[in-house]
Amino acid sequence: MKFDELGLRAETLRALTDLGYETPTPIQEKAIPVVLMGRDVMGVAQTGTGKTAGFTLPMIDILAEGRGRARMPRSLILEPTRELAAQVAESFDRYGKYHRLTKALLIGGESVKDQQAVLQRGVDVLIATPGRLLDLFERGQILLADTKLLVIDEADRMLDMGFMPDVERIVNLLPPLRQTLFFSATMAPEIRKLGNKFLHNPKEVSVAPPASPAQTVTQRMLRTHTDPKSKRAALRGLLDAEMDSLTSALIFCNRKRDVDVVYKSLKRHGYNAEALHGDMAQPARMETLRRFKNDEIRLLVCSDVAARGLDIPRVSHVFNFDVPVNSEDYVHRIGRTGRAGRSGKAFMLATRDDEKLLASLYKLIGGNIQELDSPGGETVETPAVLEGAEAKPRRSRKRRSGRDEAAAEPRGRPTPRSEPAAVAEAVEAAELPAEETQAEELEAQATEAEVAQAADKPKATRSDGKRKAAASKAPQNKASEGKASEGKASGSKPAGRKRDEAVGETPFGDHVPAFILREVPAAVLEH
């Protein structure tokens, strides 16, 4: 089927011809005629299959007649991220260049006054993120009473990011008589429940199993150590092995701080890389994306802010530095490559701590990902992978005392250490000069000798401790003996046995209990 068989206007077909589009994708082929009929649509398709054109093309034809009034947009498209909203705005410019339609892009990080000025002139299409739209609505700059066409794009991402309460509030502000288009790459039960709440007698359009990777993407996985330096070394090994076929690549990390760490590591090793995440200022994010699309940047290290809906045809590779916490994000990440029938490659680094996440991922996609060895032919569990690792920062060479080491590692039974720790120690030892290594070996031998000598000594008993205590108090005993002799000379008679005689005969040291010094009654002795 061709585009001219879908019932689109001549101006729209002319724009598609200029872009070189002739055959619609399955989701476009099924969704466009239904949207032109004015029915509500629930569209489910894999990422990268052309969902954006599936609703923008018929919207342009529907909005071709009529004119928007000040602060009253005729249609509304809700997007979860600023980048995706900006991309949809670009699609309207390309597909509707032969139509006299106006649009407004309402996203955070941009000038509010400029956006208000555009709304005052009247727009046909309003593309917005939920937060900025509600902000301007509360300021009285937007009236939604004349909005007759609503599009909720990437609904599953809206749910993940916590936007659904805002979306429900926005839907309640719209007129009840409207056409609603609900598009998502996955269709969880929660998403379907929301779709049934927003739509009226919808036509469901599904062209692929939900959350299934595209067949045009080759998936591979590489096992690596858990420590970050080994993972970065393994990533560089993959990049070097794929550099001949790599035109541009996205490198996804789970956390924003890891994005900065990986980006700085790649820059330090001479790679053409930049970073993209949600903490960056909006102008910087848009400029980075522009440079990446224009092939000025070859590697883009990013968070999941770039995992949804971004259409960059020349992305040949996707590298998952981390296994996604949400399994569905994996489908969206690798969907940035292999788009529009092109082929792509996706690699993922996994550690022994990712087994639960991998099990959840395999359950979602219905199969395992083929594992491979390191590009050099050796598995990533060997120290050879660390040959290209970054220079290890010099640390203090202070060692623990012999007693501490003996407490940490009992003799004859060394404490088991993980393999990454042993590899890291081997790398550190290789970096030390010969003199320092010999000095540390001599120190270690001396420490072991001290520990062995201490172990051969007999253990002290309680009686030994008491003897030592008695010896330490010898001066006091002598003083007491002197006092006792003085008392004897003066004629005083001590009660019971003499104190100086008791000191050497009883096991109580210098102190003798009082009951021993008492005289035994004669009656007791008779019995």
Summarize the structure.
The chain has 527 residues and is α/β, with parallel strands linked by helices. The protein contains 21 helices and 14 strands.
Features:
single chain, 527 residues, alpha/beta, Rossmann fold, 3 domains, 7-stranded parallel β-sheet, 14 strands
Structural notes for this entry:
- By secondary structure, the protein is α/β, with parallel strands linked by helices.
- It folds into three domains: 3-206, P-loop containing nucleotide triphosphate hydrolases (Rossmann fold, 3-Layer(aba) Sandwich), CATH 3.40.50; 217-388, Rossmann fold (3-Layer(aba) Sandwich); 497-527, no CATH class.
- It contains 21 helices and 14 strands.
- The strands form two sheets. The chain has a seven-stranded parallel sheet with strand order 3-4-2-5-6-1-7. A seven-stranded parallel sheet has the order 10-11-9-12-13-8-14, sandwiched between helices.
- Helix 12 (282-293) links the parallel strand 10 (273-276) and strand 11 (299-302).
- The relative contact order is 0.09.
- Residues 376-452 and 454-506 have low confidence and may be disordered.
Which architecture of the largest domain does the CATH hierarchy give at level 2?
Answer: 3-Layer(aba) Sandwich
- The pLDDT mean sits at 76
Strand order of the largest sheet: 3-4-2-5-6-1-7
Low-confidence stretches: 376-452, 454-506
Instruction: Give a quick account of the main beta sheet: strands, pairing sense, barrel closure.
Output: 7 strands, parallel
**How many distinct folded domains?**
3
Query: What value does the Rg take, in angstroms?
Result: 39 Å
Q: Which structural class should the secondary elements be placed in? A: alpha/beta
Please report which band the strand proportion falls in: under 5%, 5-15%, 15-25%, 25-35%, 35-45% or over 45%.
5-15%
Find the CATH topology of the largest domain.
Rossmann fold
DSSP strand tally? 14
At the fourth level of CATH, the homologous superfamily of the largest domain is P-loop containing nucleotide triphosphate hydrolases
- Overall 3D shape: elongated
- Separation of the first and last Cα atoms: 127 Å
What fraction, in percent, of the residue positions are helical?
40-55%
CATH class of the largest domain: Alpha Beta
Helix segment count? 21
